[in-house]
Fold:
Amino acid sequence: MFLAAILLSVWGVFCIYSAAAGASGRGFDFAIRQSVWLIVSILAMLLIMIIGHHKLLEGAYPLFGLMLLFLLLTAIFAPKVNGAQSWLGFGGIRFQPSEFAKVAIILMMSKFLSRYPPLDFKTFMMCLGVIALPVFLVLLQPDAGSALVFLVISFGMLLAAGTPLKYLFGLAGIGASAVPLLIMFALKDYQKNRILVFLDPMRDPLGAGYNVIQSRIAVGSGGFAGKGFMLGTQSKLKFLPEPHTDFIFSVFSEEFGFLGNIILISLFSVLLFRIIMTGINSRDRRSKILTAGVASWLWFQMFESMGMSIGIVPVTGLPLPFLSYGGSSLLAIFMALGLVASVYVEGASSKHGI
Amino acid sequence: MEILDSRLKFFLYGITLSVLILISGLYFFQINQGDKYIRLAHSNRLRIIRFSAPRGEIFDRHGVPLAVNDTTFSIMGYPLDLNTPAKLEHLSKILMRHGIPITVPDLEKTIKQQRLAPYRVMKIVQNLTMTQMVELVADYEFPRELFPLSVWRRTYPAGTTAANVLGYVSEISEAELKARSEMGYTGGDLIGKSGVERSYEEILRGSPGQEALEVDARGRKIRTLDANPAVKGEDLHLTLDMAAQKLAVELLSDYKGALLAMDVNTGEVLALASSPVYDNNPLTWGVSAREWNEIVNNPDRPMLDRAIAGVYPPASTFKAFMSIACLEENVINERSMFTCRGGLKFGSHTFKCWKHSGHGGLNVTGALQHSCDVFFYLAGLKSGIDKLIKWGRKFHLGEPTGIDLPGESGGNIAGPDWKMRRFNAQWAGGDTVNYSIGQGYMLMTPIQIARVYAAIANGGKMVTPHLNKKGYKTPENIGVNPAKLAIVQKGLEYVVSRGTGSRAGRFGIPIAGKTGTAQNSHGADHALFAGYAPVGNPKYVAVAVVEAGRHGSSVAAPLVAQLLAHLLSHED
Structure:
C-alpha cells in the first residue's frame, strides 16, 4: 500500500515538473515545492500512525466542529482564485480547508455511523443532516467539486455501514432527479457551460469546450507508448489549461501513453484494494466504515479526474490524487492513508494475539 | 459485521468495474483512435490569436485630442519559416530594398529572444507604417509565409505639455500581470502606467479580440473557426483646458514647481502643470534602459507630478486657514487687535516677523493684508494646537484630495500625536508658533492648497478635484459661518488690492489671494501664491509653487494672475 502511494506521488512530482515546465517555465520550482509537501505528508502519515486511529476517532466530534469553523471562515474571508474562494492563508502558507475537511468527515462519520447504525429511517435522516452541514459550507465558496466529493464519501460510508439498500436507492433517485433542477437554477454559468460542453465539446471551441477538446487531443495523441517524458506537445505549447493541477492526467497520458496509464491505474487499483482489504480484515466496526470512506474518496477523485480528461464525465476541476500539484490535497490524502495504516497495524497485531 | 464485510466486498467489484470503464475509454482514445489524435496534435492544430483592443482616446474639455491611436504594422511569422541563414538573408535583402534597415544579425537577435516553440508565432519586425507594409506585401519576392498584423500605437499629440496628467502606457510588468490575474491580461499587453492612463485603465482598455484558426503543419492559417472582434475602450473626456494647460506649462517653463487651476464650485481641474516636464511619447513606444535611467535618475525628477505629489510648507498661504480656524473657535473676532513689534519672544527663542520693523497694531484683515507673522503666532498660541488640528481635519489636510490621478500625496497635518510617533518627542509651544504660519512640520501639496482656497471662495464647501468630466462629486459642506468667512475673503482681497500680493492685480481682473514664502532647508525659499477670481463671484482658483523662487509676491503671484485672467477671458 505504501509502496503504491509513494510510487504514485514520486511519479506525480515528475509529471508536475513536465506540466509546469510548459505552462509557466517554472517546472523546477513547482516540482521542488511538491517534493517538500510530499516529505511533509509522509511525516504526517507516520505521525497519525503513531497517534493511532482510536485516539483520533475519540476526538472526531471536536475535529469536525473545528473543520466546520474553518470552512465558514473560508467562505467568508478567503480571496477568490479562479472564481471560487477556497484558500485560507496564515502567515504566508495557504491551504485549502476543504481538503482536510474530507479527513474530518471520514472520522466523524465512522464514529457516528457505528454508534447510530443507519438501519431505520430516522437515524438515516440524522446522518444526512450531519453531512449536509459541510456540503452547504463548501457550496457557499462556491466549490461544487468538493461538495460532490463530500457526498460521495458519505454515500460510500453509508453503503458500507449497512444502510438498507432501499434508502440508498431512494437517495440516489432523489439525487438523479435533482440534477435537471440544479442545472436550471443552482449552477453558476460556468458550471452550466461545463455540462453543456460535456454533451457537445464543439459547441464552443474557443471557450468552455476548448479544454475538453485539447485534453482529448493530448490523451489520444499519447498513443500506445506515449511521446516520452517532457516531450508532450499539447502541454508544452500551452494548449492545455491548468496542466499541473486539473489536467495533470492529460499531461501524463500524452507523455506515457496507454502503457503508462495501465501501470498508473494498476497502482491505484492495488492501493484501493489494499485499503478495502484492511477494512475487511479489521474487527472494528468503525475501522471498516473508515476504510470505506477513504476508498470512496480516492476512487471518486481518480475516476472523475481521469474521466474528465477523456471527456467521459463533465469537467469539475478535482485534482487527481497523488499526481496533481497541491500541498493541501497531498497532505490530506496521506493523513487518510495514515488512518488506514493504523487500522492495518491493529488488525495485524490482533491476529498475532489470537 | 457480516453485512459490513459484504458491502466492502461490493466496493471491490465497483472499483474493478470503474477501472475497466477507464481502461476501455483510454483504449478507445489512445489505441483505437490514437492515429487520428496524433494527426490532430501534430499537423492540424487549433490556434488562438489575440488582438489587443484599441484603447479609448482621451480629449480635453473642448474635444482637443490628447491621446490617440496610430495604426502601425508588424510582420509576423513562425520560427519554422526562418530557420536557415538563407531565408534570413533573403528577408533582410527585401527589407533593405524598401528602406528598412534591418540586418541579418538584427533578425537573428529578435528571433532568439522570442523563440519558445516551433509553432509559436513571433513578431519579426515592428512599427512599420501603412505605406511601408503595402510596399513590402506588393513585392513579389516577399516571403508568403510571413504575414502583416496591424497593431495600435499610443500617441500623445500634446507631448510634454500634459504628460503629468495623461501619463503613459507600456507593456504590462510581471508584477502587474500577477496582481490582475483575473482581469484577462496577458504578457505583452499595454497597460496605463501613470496619470489618467492608469487611473482610468479599466474603462480605456477595451476588451481584446480572439480568433480561433485552423492551421496547417507549418502553422499557416487554413481557415478561421471562430472570432470575437476586439472592442475599443471607452473614450475619456477630461476637464482639462488645453489652452490653459499650455499657458500654465509656458509660464512655469523657467522654473521648477507647479501651477494649477480648478473650478471653485465643481472641482474640475482646468490646468495642472508640473515643471520640469517629460515627454510621454517615447516612454510609450519603448525606451532603452539608458534613456529610462536618465529620466528616472534625473535629480530634478521630471516624472514627479509636483502639483499633486510635491509637498511643500504652505507658508503664509496657510494664514487664510488660520484665520478661519481662529474666528470659528472664537479665539479672535474681527476687531481683535494684536501688536507686532517685529518679533515674538517665546521661551528662549525669538520668532521674527518678516517685517523686522514691525507692523504695529492690526486686526485679522490687516494681518492677512500685510501677512503679519506675529499676529498669527499670537492667535495660534491663544487657540492651541488641538483646535488647529481639529480644523485641519475638517479641511482634510494630511489626506489626499481624491483627485483621479495615481500617486497623490496627502501632505502632513502633523500635530502632537504625529510628533510623538515620528520623533518620540513632546509637541512644544514653539512648534505651534511655527505651525501658525504654515512652516515647520505642516506640509501640503499644491492641489490641497487649491482645495482649501476653493472652499474659502465657494462658501465653505470641500470639492473633490477631478479630471474626468464625469468625475463630479457633491462637495462636502464643512459648516463655516458665512459672516466669518467674509472677513477672511475681505482680507484676501486686500492682499491683492493694497497688500503683499499687489503684483497679482496687474492683469485686469479682480483677484483675491495670498502670497507665501516657504523656508527651504535645501536652498533658496519656495515662492507660493494661491488665489481665486473674480472677487465677488469666484469661478476659478489657481495655485503656483515655484521651488527656490524666493518671494511669493514677486514670482508666484503673477503666474496665478495670468492663468486666472486667461481662464476668465476664454470662458466656455
Summary: Chain B has a mean pLDDT of 87. The CA atoms of residues 184 and 352 of chain B lie 61 Å apart. Chain B touches chain A through 44 residues (CB under 8 Å).
